[in-house]
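Section 5.1 Outputs to date
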Amino acid sequence: MADTTTATFTATTSTTVSAASAASISAVAGSSQTANVDTAFSNALQAKVTDAYGNPVSGVTVTFTSPASGATGTFIGGSNTATATTNAPGVATAPSLTANNTAGEFTVTASTSGVGASASFALTVTLVPDFSIAASSSTISITQGATGTTTFTVPPLNGFNQAVSFACSGLPSEASCSFSPASVTPNGGPVNSVLTITTTAPTALLKQDVAPWQRGRGLAVATALLFGWLVGWRKRRLAVSLSLFIVLGAVLLLPATGCGAGSSNSGGSTPSNPGTPTGADQVTVAASSSGSGSTQHTATLTITITP
């Protein structure tokens, strides 16, 4: 009998499955965003590339394109196009996109070679809420001691609705400013505030001289007192005479030193406060909004102080 040998062979096959070529591209992040003019959009634009079976395709170059004019945005370097390569999950992330200074809606597209349709990102550029100020008159002439006024109008821009307060600087000495009302809120339409500049008039300190007739009366009194003293001495009635002549001197001097009697302005007057200086000055009015992202605008006035 012959021996029989059975041999068993096992074959191992290694199979590598590769994704098919890109078949579609879609926007997965960054669409429906809004940014103020000249401000970067918060979220990066991301597009995903898949094959015909929905599998992600990596290593594919994706081109992002924004409009060349109108409301749009630019990528790093100021270009309207940028490229990115898909990662393992098939996602390509665009560099930062910054809105331009034109308000409106626009679309950024993402495309890749071999795929006919592109992905779209809807974006919007908005204007920053703001306000402006304008004076009814930029020049004011004021007499020392008087007041001058001008009206400031504050119109809102792009839906601005915050409170605006006022301040002024550059006033000459002895002058002040006030606003009525002190703050305004242009909610839907222009509002006004009246600026009043108050000045100070010069004041004088009177300088009074003794009139000649008063000086003559004083000399007469002194002569009478001396004569009386001599008479009293001769009659040895010194004590009585002195008392008499003291009373006489007081009576004679009383009209000259009484309240307002014999006053004279012959010596002129000397200013004790010159008031607000005369001449022209540039006054700056600042209008500032409150809250976060506060804004300030200024206007310049020329005020002329006259005597």
